[in-house]
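Quick check before the chapter quiz. The format below is the same one you will see on the exam, so make sure you can read both the input and the output lines.
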Amino acid sequence: GALFKDLERYGIRPPKYQDVANDAKNHVSHQAWATFYQYGHATNFHTWMPEKDELDWLSRKYPETFDKYYRSRFEYWAKEHAEGRRFYNNTLPQLCQVCQIPTIFTEKDDPTALSHRQIVHEGERYHFCSDGCCDIFKNEPEKYVQAWLPVHQIYQGNCEGGDVETVVSKYYHINIGEDNFEYIGSPDHKRWLSIKGKQTGGKESSSSQDAA
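Here is the expected output.
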């Protein structure tokens, strides 16, 4: 926002909802990663839980929010994974009709409450992740009502039912277990270790030569 005061004389002002975006920066990355981790069966990339040094870095980077709201969640998931109970959420999240991302982010002033807006347009109910997306839809609904949202189509039974893995494999052309799910032990992880000359193990396992 450094230049906005200088540019006020030309009628240039900060964009609408910039205050929401500024507050959200302390939450969005953590909430997005938590979502990717849970819904690994519906993505085309691998996920993992941050290790202790990474958690410590996040604590320093986001001192007002990370330890208070997110660290314990990641530590719990990591513990469950270590004990053979890697968590997957077998549902699918609601999608925003405008930006088409999952409506999993929280209210500006309450990181414990989901930000969700909805309106009825010509007898159909539409859902949004924020006031911003809802306003965009209201301004030009005909542009967005035609969006074909995969999650909604799956739940409506238009993709041969609600078996998410089958739909993801057949319609998204994702190779289940190779292109998604857990990173540790995945083909991508093994290739990375091979490139680095390390043995399969933890995320950055050392080879016997390194240990020596």
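If your answer matched, good. Residues 205-212 have pLDDT under 50 and may be disordered.
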